[in-house]
C-alpha cells in the first residue's frame, strides 16, 4: 500500500476530527455544540448499534439456531434470512456498543470531571434502568407468560407469579431481560469511576508513555488475542443467554474488554485515528471470518465443546468483533463526522426505542404466530412495526418530557425555540 495515502488520510482526519485530538483541557473548554457535531458519526454509530438490537430481537422467533437457554415467547417456523441476519450481526453489535460506551465514558470524564461523571452516569444509566425494570419489566413478563400459555408451554395456573413455571422456562424467567446491558454498563462505569478517584492521573497517552508501536492494519488482530482466549474458556457471552439480576461474570468480563478498549481509544486518540485508517481492509477481512463462524455454528464440522472447537470459535468471534469495530470506526470517522437534524433525532430516539421495544416485539410475535404468511415476512412486519411504534411513542411521550431529559438531556419544542430566539432578538 502506498504510504503517502495513509498519511494524507490521517492529516485530513486530524483536521476534521480536531476537537477529539485536543488536550483534555481544550476539550473541557471547547464549544459543546461544535464538539457534538464533530462526534456526529460516533453518535450515529452508537444509535445503529442500539437499533440493530430491535432487528435482532425481531428475528428471535424465527431462528434455526437459537441462543442456548433462550426460551422465546413463541417459536415459529425458522427463516434462513432471519437466522443469517441475526448471527451475522450478533458477534460484533454488542462489542461495538460497549467500545463506544467506553469511548464516551472517557470523553465525559475528561470534559466534566469525576463528580459530574458520577451525576451524569446516575441520571443516564441508573435511573432509566430502575424505572424500566419496574415498569417495562412487568409488562414484558405478562406478554411472555401469555405467549407461553397460548402456545401450550405453561398452564393457566403457572401464569400466576406465585406458581413456578416449568423448569426450562423458570430458570430464565426472572431477570432484567434486554436491560442487562444497562446493568453491566453501570458496573463498568462504577469501577471506572472508582479507579479514577483512587488512582488519578494514571491514564497517560501513548505518546507520553513513549510507546513506539506504530498502528498498522493488523491492530484489530492483536486486540482479538485476549478476547479470543477469554471466549476459549467460556463461549456463553456469544452463544447463550443468562437472564439474571446477578452479574454474569463471563459476560461482564468479556464486554468489559471492549469498554476498556473504548477508553484507551479516546485516551490515545491520535494513535487511534491512525489505527482505523484501513476501514475497507478491516471490513473485507471480517467477511471470511463471519462465514467461518456461520459454518461452525450451523454444522457439526467440529465439536464446539472441545478445547479445539472453543478455541477456533472464540478466536473467530473475536476477530469478527475487532475487525468490524475498527472498520466501522474508520468508515464513520472518514465519511461521517458531522451530525444533521435527522441523525441527531435518530440518535436521541434510539435509547428509548431500545428500552421499550421488547414487549412490542413479543406481542407482535404472538399475534402473528398463527397467521399463514412466510416467516421472513413476519420478521419484516415485526421489525418495521416496532420501529414505527417506537418512534411515535418517543415523539409523543418522551422527547419533550422528563423521560427525554433523563435519557438524552432536555430538548425544546420547535415553537419554544422560535419564541426564545424572537425574545432574544
Summarize the entry for a quick read:
With 425 residues, the protein is mainly alpha-helical.
Structure description:
With 425 residues, the protein is mainly α. The protein is built from 18 helices and no strands. It has helices at residues 4-16, 24-29, 32-38, 40-58, 80-150, 167-170, 180-198, 206-209, 219-233, 236-239, 249-267, 269-275, 279-298, 307-335, 341-368, 375-397, 402-408, 414-424. Helix 9 runs antiparallel to helix 14. The N and C termini lie far apart (55 Å). The model is unreliable at 1-35, 205-211 and 420-424 (pLDDT under 50).
Strand content: under 5%
Which structural category fits the helices and strands? mainly alpha
Number of strands: 0
Rounded to an integer in angstroms, the radius of gyration calculated over CA atoms is 22 Å
Order of helices and strands: HHHHHHHHHHHHHHHHHH
What composes the largest sheet? none
Helical run tally: 18
The percent range for helix content is over 70%
Morphology = globular
Q: What number is the mean pLDDT?
A: 85
Q: How far is it from the N-terminal to the C-terminal residue, by CA?
A: 55 Å
Unreliable segments (pLDDT under 50, ≥5 consecutive)? 1-35, 205-211, 420-424
Layout of helices and strands:
Elements (H helix, E strand, L loop, with lengths): L3 H13 L7 H6 L2 H7 L1 H19 L21 H71 L16 H4 L9 H19 L7 H4 L9 H15 L2 H4 L9 H19 L1 H7 L3 H20 L8 H29 L5 H28 L6 H23 L4 H7 L5 H11 L1
